[in-house]
Please model this.
Amino acid sequence: MNLKQTIYALSTVYGKSGVAVIRVSGDNAIDVISQMTTIDTHLIKERYAYFSPIISPLTKEVLDQALVLYFKAPHSFTGEDIVEIQCHGSRAVISSILEALAKFENFRLAEPGEFSRRAFYHQKMDLTEAEGLADLIDSETREQQKQALRQISGTLHNLYSSWRERLLNIEAYLEAYIDFPEEELPKELTNQISDNVSKLKSEIKEHLKTSRFGERLRDGFHIVITGPTNAGKSSLINAITERKAVIVSDIPGTTRDAVDIRLDVNGYPVILTDTAGIRETNNPIEKEGIELAREKIDEADLILALFDASDTEPDIFNALKRKHPNNLWLIASKADKITPEQCSEFENKNILCLSSKTNAGINELFSSIGAFIKENIGSNTSALMTRARYREALTECLKNLENFNFEKEIELSAEDIRLAARAIGKITGQIEVGEILDKIFGSFCIGK
Model:
């Protein structure tokens, strides 16, 4: 990436719209104002919206009437001079302005995520904040939006930076004594350092417990519906989504693949999976579907085990309940076929009765799912770990801290601390992490 070049891109979705935003960033960004508008660059005010014709620098043809804003470095998103053109969002207008920008010397179209990457290089954000921005752009539910905003505001940055600073302070003490080998570490200092390392290990271990929930908040909470054939699994999916999302049939084995449906449950992202009915079969395709269903069950955050309340007993799930004691719920489906007294008996055993035909019990199921997700995610929303790479780096950090002790050479002890600090630095970008940057910023859209 050449930071000396000025970059430009459409920052809004390409297509027909009322307004489109074209962003230019770099040392020569102000040339756009001097050559494509009627604005006097000597008198221009920062962060002030000017209404001006947008003119082709070659043909002097008017391309559009637009709002133009100038953000002077370093007080901009990227830390460079930025010009924003808020034009009409027709394809013709957008294309003509981008074509005009391409004619400027040392200008080029931005790569995916390059604006945010330049913001990182100019210390406008660290990697956790940049990834929070990406999550905000991709957010589909209220809770995803809230978590992304927390991350942009520096919640994770502050936590990880404070841990790294503590490690650097410890390393500084150890390095000082390495430089003066004739001096022995005072017992008071070794106790203090050991205590600090122990506290830090406890904090990281506690934080690592949130990794699964944070990643689920970002990617989706997995709920799998399982049960024997004709238990009403597909009917429940259709009742929940209020559309014919999957095929419903009395023929056993109709559902042979795992079907994922994305939902918003009280602001939390949910991936609801309909699976093949569990039964003995000689059909190789159905067997494969049943095996896939078992894999999905083992990976699920919550399992809804459905059985036909009119002709099946819940004890068919006894083995599954023993394997998943904390996240399996028994659901008596087709409750319209049984009496209220029978339904009460099920409910007394903590078995929810519902009917996809009459929608009885559907709202109660939704409320219970929302409460379950909030209990697992919502109670730790201040600094959730949302990406696997954070977990991997902190696990590496913890491994080095576990290796630390004063029973070996002080140089080796200092190396443990240095490696631990380096692992945390990979998360925030406080060390050279070139191999990570392309992957992170490459997931952004072109104009971001």
